[in-house]
């Protein structure tokens, strides 16, 4: 961390300030220019809050040199993390696809879609049992009944299940029943929940908040990892911008950005990003070309009658042909090279 | 709700679609132009999901005419709501000020600040016991001990206490100990929590999410109200934009916007918005002039040593002089006039 | 255009309002519900300003059904436009790559880079002679001398040249010397300039403004086309969001969005979007996979000593290997199918 | 400027890099920590491009300590600038109000509104003769005829006129006829135009771009000032965010932010910000309370029939009562105190 003191700050004040920093176990280098005095802090600065430093009257600016995350940081863990899920895994170079409906609606529906997406090449089944809805009057999911139907679909297809947890209340049930616990964008900074997730060892699919920076996403992963659970998969699902044609703006530059800063896998959700089914194909292809570790795609056999998000679901046939193209694009995709990009 | 069908949609498809809407209890008016067929839905459309409608192949566009919130809607409750808190209240025209430190640090600190802000004219004491922090390595608050100290400060000053709840885990404790439960920006769409808040009758201070629209803020209030708790106070605290000079951009147009759409009180948090203590004065004055029902301001007797957010806290003396000006500005503030602005 | 009148508006006022609309040559359908009266306007509504309609006291909401652009609209021109440039072209399915340095610095530099990018497969040479710089103290380009050097590079390689025009002052010179006139993001709504561009027939590369919506980009294209010049190539180059890791956020969903709404070619600028050279490869691959008609890439033989934007330039060797991959990805890219996506 | 070199950069590379910086006339302080080498640059760094520095392979991060603007910087010009306009002025503590219609429509209209706003206390008359419109099919203003009508209104009321210049074409005419040349948000970074404005001495009202940072606004002012014209008045008119209820989000924190960084006057445009007439009153009151040097307000005697922006115009009677309140609020407004806020 580098601290620039205000011009004309007295030596006494600077010395007093330095002493306080040293008391926190840091080595402080000072550099007196003709106008600004600059302090360089050496040591573990992750526990130092830059905003607290900024609160000091004599501080002009603070620059954080080292990222504030440790366990999620590629600097201390240069190889890609691979998250084990059942017999499969996510991360480490090969493309993994999670597919299924927005929400579980019936046994027939979820089993039939599970079979379709498996056949097309998906490795995991998604499906919402508990649904986060902007309106209290909208369909809130089949809840526990939905969870049972997901388990039936898993039994029939062998596909591990990925489904969203809405808070701490159902955590134990999810640990028991589910293969990957999905944390939605709106809960990315639900710190009470993140702390609980750190205590289990179930893989967590952590979605980027609607307006979360990449650093904040990594800090939320750090919460879980600092608690002891290092099985975190990150997910970019579109960010909120001023553009209204699409529901959100998919930020594919998050893939290389995260690859450089972190060893965690990063997957892309093209369905929620655009909010329109016909954009799923171009955005999926783009995500794979840009080096995503995986995709999570909404597939529905009857989108027009889906209980939620039908407008962004593709049909099984479309999904099949998409999967075929993705396998080809994957061969030429970008991949992170630590020697080329370095630190 | 108005639905525009795609050009060249066959009559059969349109008729089939209309029947489905009628089955949901709606009256459907149709208007066949030369190119587009337009459907107008009459009845309670709050349970109809516009995105589900949009999923239909033959639908070109959907326009929502009526806001999707009912209990929070001024249309059905023209008078301002006044939320009772102890002997005091928030809403209904007079200015209420909540003040105190970012976090409770010691008995001396919280009691002394409480006395200072009371003397300056504050009606409520704020202070964090449980703190939402971006980093797991930052100070997380004094937790239960902090809550006890807040109660001591309340006893010594008579000021009702406002403090943040981080999830459902501590809800019962907060219902017992706290006067107003604050829900932070990051939990505005923690739906599991919102549902629980609907079951109690404690006043809720609901902060606008970092990138929540005004409609989404009102929909989160609706969640709480739909559950049975109508004691909701809204709070604008700055939204995330591209500007980096300030931490967030305070959106004061949210005051008139909310006043027109809802009967709920709306207060402003100038401290978190800008993230700089010297902006608290201009933004507080602006908020009062624009018709805010109240302010929530961070006051600290030693900002440079505060455990969090010192850079955005003002000192008690500054707070006192600010309060004096605010009382004068209040006399000329904007206030909503239903006859002038109407619906 | 659909207009919803406020509830309880008197019939007299509505009739008077309808008459005014009819006087503008429109047919007005009316639909009286129990609460809202809805007007549907039939005819050419592009000349009707929705904000002016909204200004009427009795109007609740306005919904625009038809896009406000005509000449750029795919609805009236279903086939892709192909823009001819010298012996080459942009648009219509095949990938076109424009490459070269941020700014022209010397004859050696521009000729050598031109030869390198041509050999790697680029079809056009880019290079700034007049540079838009945020600071008046930054290098402003070699100006007319730079233009001469570009012409030499064209002569030596046969590559048509693409370079930025900063205003109307140099327009005649550019018409004479340049193959494609580039209009930068900051000038996308420089309407005086757009009107002049409509009077010539030189191809225009129109970059999306930093915070322009897709519709606004198409409206700026419409300005040029309405003036008589239909040779417009659109360019997405990253939009401004709250994320600070990248300079801008590349919006690849703009590709399918524009393909559906317009017949104009759309190319991608991965260099300016991210502002970091090592993101050019993943973003270029993603752009091609998502169906872009072309790319504009900054290539420099000595980025660390470039006079501008060196941090986002790749070296010729990197460019060559990238071009090889792009040709493979192109085979599996998304392409717009009017029968599948329709209107 | 502070430069952090990448860890493990060889001493040779660092020394070579330092030499290059020294060759630009800078003194370079170095500080070798255990991991990072840090360089502090002393001297005039405004001509150094941080992005160019960033392009060097061995550079990890760059922090700019001093703002990149000089002539607009309060650091070198501590007193408020007061811009003289005819017998009046803008800046320096007293509130100045510019009022009038969006566009000039007829002699009757502009003269009558001019008389009304003068009587209510406005000091300047606004009115568009050349209009920037998103659509080429919208009313583009009365152009030269409109300019003549503004001159008639000035003659009849004595109010200096403020009107928008769209490019360099009409510059000479505006210098001759107009009192303040307004540069719209879309032209804030039209650098060709800014350079021409630097050569005249007419006061310039420079509007902040739709997504311009405060620093970029000040850099555009610097362009004009660096050319020789120091008569610049800044204007905040709402920035583009994700919120759709209002047209733009008025950023009132720009007032204190600009006051701290610059000596130039800053005025607020509440009409364009919200895009709704009934928000003009609360936002105007807020702007004055927050310390704005002035306001620019759209007033129209017949908004429903205005040729543009009627929905955001208030009537003369409303304007009069607003002016009366503003005079009271002004007495308690925030004002910048260099001793309190310092640098």
Q: Overview of this structure, please?
A:
The structure is a homotetramer of 343-residue chains. Chain A is built from 12 helices and 14 strands. Chain A is an alpha/beta fold and 343 residues long. The first copy, chain A, folds into 2 domains: 62 residues, Phospho-2-dehydro-3-deoxyheptonate aldolase, domain 1 (Alpha-Beta Plaits); 268 residues, Alpha-Beta Barrel (TIM Barrel), CATH 3.20.20.70. In chain A, the strands form 3 sheets. Chain A has an 8-stranded parallel β-barrel with strand order 7-8-9-10-11-12-13-14, surrounded by 6 helices. The longest helix of chain A is centred in the last third of the chain and has 15 residues. At the C-D interface, helix 2, helix 6 and helix 7 of C face helix 2, helix 6 and helix 7 of D. Chains A, B, C, D: It holds the Pfam family DAHP_snth_FXD. Chains A, B, C, D: One of its GO terms (biological process) is aromatic amino acid family biosynthetic process. Chains A, B, C, D: It comes from Clostridium pasteurianum DSM 525 = ATCC 6013.
Binned strand content of chain A: 15-25%
Cα radius of gyration of chain A in angstroms: 23 Å
Specify the oligomeric state: homotetramer
Strands side by side in the biggest sheet of chain A: 7-8-9-10-11-12-13-14
What separation lies between the terminal Cα atoms of chain A? 17 Å
Number of helices of chain A: 12
The strand count of chain A comes to 14
Which runs of chain A of at least 5 residues are low in confidence (pLDDT < 50)?
Answer: none
The CATH topology of the largest domain in chain A is TIM Barrel
Helix and strand run of chain A: EHEEHEEEEHEHEHEHEHEHEHHEHH
Computed structural class of chain A: alpha/beta
Which architecture of the largest domain in chain A per CATH? Alpha-Beta Barrel
Average pLDDT taken over every residue of chain A: 93
Largest β-sheet summary of chain A? 8 strands, parallel, barrel
CATH superfamily of the largest domain in chain A: Aldolase class I
Question: Which pair of chains has the greatest number of interface residues, and how are they split between the two chains?
Answer: C-D, 52 and 52 residues
Domains of chain A (count): 2
Query: How would you sum up the global shape of chain A?
Result: elongated
Domain DAHP synthase ferredoxin-like (chains A, B, C, D): 1-67
Pfam family, one (chains A, B, C, D): DAHP_synth_1
Domain DAHP synthetase I/KDSA (chains A, B, C, D): 88-330
GO biological process, one term (chains A, B, C, D): aromatic amino acid family biosynthetic process
């Amino acid at each position: 961390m580098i601290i620039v003191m205000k011009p004309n700050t007295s030596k006494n004040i600077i010395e007093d300030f330095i002493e306080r920093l040293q008391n926190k176990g840091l080595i402080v280098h000072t550099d007196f220019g003709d106008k600004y005095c600059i302090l360089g802090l050496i040591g573990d600065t992750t526990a130092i809050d830059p905003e607290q430093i900024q609160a000091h009257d004599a501080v002009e600016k603070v620059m954080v040199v080292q990222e504030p995350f440790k366990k999620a940081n590629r600097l201390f863990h240069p190889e890609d993390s691979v998250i084990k899920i059942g017999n499969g895994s996510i991360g480490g170079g090969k493309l993994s696809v999670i597919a299924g409906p927005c929400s579980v609606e019936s046994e027939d529906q979820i089993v039939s879609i599970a079979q379709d997406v498996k056949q097309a090449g998906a490795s995991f089944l998604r499906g919402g049992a508990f649904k986060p809805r902007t309106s209290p009057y909208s369909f809130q999911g089949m809840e526990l009944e939905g969870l049972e139907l997901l388990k039936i679909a898993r039994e029939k297809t062998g596909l591990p299940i990925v489904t969203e947890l809405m808070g701490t209340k159902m955590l134990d049930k999810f640990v028991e029943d589910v293969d990957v616990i999905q944390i939605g964008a709106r809960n990315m900074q639900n710190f009470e929940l993140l702390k609980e997730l750190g205590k289990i060892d179930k893989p967590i699919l952590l979605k980027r908040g609607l307006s979360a920076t990449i650093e904040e996403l990594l800090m939320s992963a750090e919460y879980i990892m600092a608690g002891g659970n290092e099985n975190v998969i990150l997910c970019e699902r579109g960010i909120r911008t001023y553009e209204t044609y699409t529901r959100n703006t998919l930020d594919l530059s998050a893939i290389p950005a995260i690859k450089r800063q972190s060893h965690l896998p990063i997957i892309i959700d093209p369905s929620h990003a655009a909010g329109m089914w016909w954009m799923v194909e171009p955005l999926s292809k783009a995500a794979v070309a840009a080096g995503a570790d995986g995709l999570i795609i909404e597939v529905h056999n009857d989108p027009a009658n889906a209980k939620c998000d039908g407008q962004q679901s593709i049909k099984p046939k479309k999904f099949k042909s998409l999967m075929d193209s993705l396998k080809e694009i994957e061969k030429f995709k970008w991949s992170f090279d630590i020697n080329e990009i370095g630190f």
